[in-house]
Write a structure and sequence with these properties.
The protein is an alpha+beta fold. The chain contains nine helices and eleven strands. Bound molecules: (R)-mevalonate (MEV). (R)-mevalonate (MEV) binds next to helix 4 and helix 5.
């Protein structure tokens, strides 16, 4: 049996603006992951693949699936990439602890874990760059204009500074820092938030471009601070980034409440993370306030809290 895992992710700075060419920063989140398990299937013709994804109640042969299904797409793309069709029949079992439609990179992690497990099993492991570009093709099914940041941070499994269309810059974190990730419990597909921003950009291109510029400047400034280990200065930047996201219309009452709650309980900064309109928010904390912020978030309605350490 071959097993491969891929982490979740959070965007620290720059979501949405990154779709319009501005820089963004994301880190992997190891506390949640997608897992793909490949095993041999007896009594089936060669080259056949059976898929089991209990989380979405899917149990099917690959050749019976709609080729546009994201799971079918990543398996077919991966087999094409390594150019192997004549292999002993396989079962691909997929499980994930990453909440779906929550801004934590669930779709990218599923694709990355499958591409990695399949290619390792068939003796042709791929580089992070190759795995990332296969997953990127599948991200396009989820929303038409993905920037590519989700598949990149998940495939490289390192903090990345990302500008659409450029090779990612994996960078070192000068001093580790702690984030609390809190789930609003409101499922929010990325495609809906991305098209909402698109509509706003069409009706007010100048206003949106200014907001994207501000977000891009925040991400650039944050990269320098993170590299230099000047973590205490990141909080105000997170708050400024949140103001821009709010102005773009992708926050929600519940996200606002969680963000205010975290700040009042002692967090140094807080913002939504990912597409918004629901999903998760992140709060920057230290050892002194982490427990207080975590329980305040639970009382304010966060359905799930994850504590993660950002480090190189
Ligand atoms: C989603 O995690 C981040 C967005 O910026 C979309 C994208 O970059 O493709 C909202």
């Amino acid at each position: 049996m071959t097993i491969a895992q891929a982490p979740g992710k959070v965007i620290l700075f720059g979501e949405h603006a990154v779709v319009y060419g501005r820089p963004a920063i994301a880190i992997p989140v190891q506390q949640v992951c997608a897992t793909a398990e490949i095993s041999q299937l007896p009594n089936a013709p060669s080259g056949q693949v059976f898929i089991q994804a209990d989380d979405i109640a899917l149990v099917k042969w690959l050749h019976e699936m709609n080729p546009d299904h994201p799971l079918a797409r990543i398996i077919n793309l991966t087999l094409q990439e390594i150019d192997i069709s004549n292999f002993l029949p396989l079962k691909v079992k997929i499980t994930s602890s990453i909440p779906i439609a929550a801004g934590l990179g669930s779709s990218a992690a599923i694709s990355v874990s499958i591409a990695r497990a399949l290619t390792q099993h068939l003796g042709r492991p791929l580089s992070p760059e190759q795995v990332s570009s296969l997953a990127f093709e599948v991200e396009k099914l989820h929303h038409g204009t993905p920037s590519g940041i989700d598949n990149t941070v998940v495939a490289y499994n390192r903090p990345v500074y990302f500008v659409r269309g450029n090779p990612p810059e994996c960078f070192s974190i000068g001093a580790p820092f702690t984030l609390l990730i809190a789930d609003s419990g409101q499922a929010s597909p990325t495609s809906i938030a991305v098209s909402k921003v698109r509509q706003q950009w069409e009706s007010d291109p100048e206003g949106c471009e200014q907001l994207f510029d501000s977000i891009g400047e925040i991400a650039d400034h944050a990269r320098g601070l993170i590299k230099a280990g000047k973590i205490s200065q990141l909080g105000p930047l997170m708050n400024k980034n949140q103001e821009c996201l709010d102005a773009l219309g992708v926050s929600s009452d519940l996200l606002d409440r969680l963000i205010q709650t975290a700040l009042q309980a002692g967090a140094f900064g807080a913002k939504l993370s990912g597409a918004g309109l629901g999903g998760n928010m992140i709060a920057l904390v230290n050892a002194d306030c982490a427990a207080d912020v975590q329980s305040a978030l639970a009382r304010a309605g966060a359905t799930r809290r994850i504590r993660t350490e950002a480090k190189t």
